[in-house]
């Protein structure tokens, strides 16, 4: 989304996400109120979503000061840390208009799917961070978690149908639940590789996932 104000002090604001409208390039629409629960949780904890450069967790460039939903979408107000080189670079790029994007990083907590169009309506989101980006909806960053979640949704249907999951599918399913890459890989090794006969291990892994689904 586009940044709409920028001050010499490094303070800026803009919409990180807008509600409704046409689905984005990944077939998603964000419902009004999708961030309300997460914003309330941040307020209660005295925290804010992180402010990163291009969704890179090792490159914070300032902090968000305010976050609120209005009729249009999620309006963010933040301040770049001008003592940080990357933040100064971001400021220069924003000021010149070379970049003008904000992009959200989040976990999906509740959604609905239109079976005819395939459009996902994201109804409850846990907002983790909002980044200054060159291009919004960065495919290699925040959308990665969304893709994993959608893949896990499809694998859940496969599991419910009684099919086995491969080791790679097992990892993808766990990532969709919020496991990190290393955690999912370790779980796959323990549940699938470390139980002797591969067919038995696969059956045990399937039983484990079904137990999680019914919990």
TrEMBL record:
Domain Prohead serine protease per the UniProt entry, residue ranges: 4-150
Q: Which GO terms describe its molecular function?
A: peptidase activity
Transcription regulation is among the record's keywords = no
Keywords of the record, alphabetical order, are: Hydrolase, Protease, Viral release from host cell
Carries keyword Cell inner membrane? no
Which Gene Ontology BP annotations are present?
Answer: proteolysis
* Listed InterPro entries: Peptidase_S78_dom, Prohead_protease
User: What is an example of a Pfam family matching this protein?
Assistant: Peptidase_S78
- What name is this protein filed under? HK97 family phage prohead protease
């Amino acid at each position: 989304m586009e940044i709409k104000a920028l001050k010499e002090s490094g303070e800026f604001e803009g919409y990180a996400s807008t509600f409704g409208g046409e689905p984005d390039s990944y077939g998603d629409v964000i419902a009004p109120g999708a961030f309300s629960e997460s914003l309330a949780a941040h307020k209660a904890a005295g925290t804010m979503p992180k402010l990163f450069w291009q969704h890179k967790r090792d490159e914070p460039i300032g902090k968000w000061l305010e976050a609120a939903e209005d009729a249009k979408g999620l309006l963010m107000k933040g301040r770049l840390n001008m003592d940080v080189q990357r933040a100064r670079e971001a400021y220069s790029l924003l000021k010149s208009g070379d970049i003008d994007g904000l992009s959200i990083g989040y976990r999906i907590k509740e959604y609905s799917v239109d079976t005819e169009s395939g459009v996902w309506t994201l109804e409850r989101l846990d907002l983790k961070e909002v980044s200054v980006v060159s291009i919004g909806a960065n495919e290699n960053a925040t959308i990665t978690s969304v893709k994993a979640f959608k893949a896990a949704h499809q694998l859940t249907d496969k599991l419910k149908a009684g099919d086995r999951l491969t080791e790679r599918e097992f990892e993808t399913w766990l990532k969709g639940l919020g496991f990190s890459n290393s955690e999912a890989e370790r779980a796959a090794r323990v549940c699938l590789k470390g139980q002797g006969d591969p067919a038995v291990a696969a059956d045990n892994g399937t039983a484990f996932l079904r137990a999680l689904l019914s919990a």
